[in-house]
């Protein structure tokens, strides 16, 4: 696996009001992110860069990080993937996360921030039932995005874990480390 370093992250302007997320069209969120990235590097012309996609983690773009004086914020410590019977599709993130944690030599309680990206609430409840040690108040402290930089929006976190269901019985997970 190629090592990927996240040098920067942009939080999208979504907030929670009385238990409901403020609505914004995905195009508006993407525009906000691109605008924020361009504001940070106003002289950057993405068309002149052959091996870096602005705002996208890319193994080829890591060479561009060297020489900038910037340090990577996190590294991917381990990944996990899982497939289950499609009748139990919502539980695939559980096994994927267990595999990623084992590969990172981490215990279940080691990550300070845990993300579970699942669209239906019933799926989250099913995953929590498979993880009895997972306190329901612990996952998704900032909303539940599967974005790699998201678990580290909170300062002071040393390890984060993210698990997501990608459909039809497939689950992916990663462990991020500072």
TrEMBL record:
<feature type="region of interest" description="Disordered">
    <location>
        <begin position="50"/>
        <end position="70"/>
    </location>
</feature>
<dbReference type="InterPro" id="IPR016039">
    <property type="entry name" value="Thiolase-like"/>
</dbReference>
<dbReference type="InterPro" id="IPR020610">
    <property type="entry name" value="Thiolase_AS"/>
</dbReference>
<feature type="domain" description="Thiolase C-terminal">
    <location>
        <begin position="72"/>
        <end position="178"/>
    </location>
</feature>
<dbReference type="GO" id="GO:0016747">
    <property type="term" value="F:acyltransferase activity, transferring groups other than amino-acyl groups"/>
</dbReference>
<protein>
    <recommendedName>
        <fullName>Thiolase C-terminal domain-containing protein</fullName>
    </recommendedName>
</protein>
<dbReference type="Pfam" id="PF02803">
    <property type="entry name" value="Thiolase_C"/>
</dbReference>
<dbReference type="InterPro" id="IPR020617">
    <property type="entry name" value="Thiolase_C"/>
</dbReference>
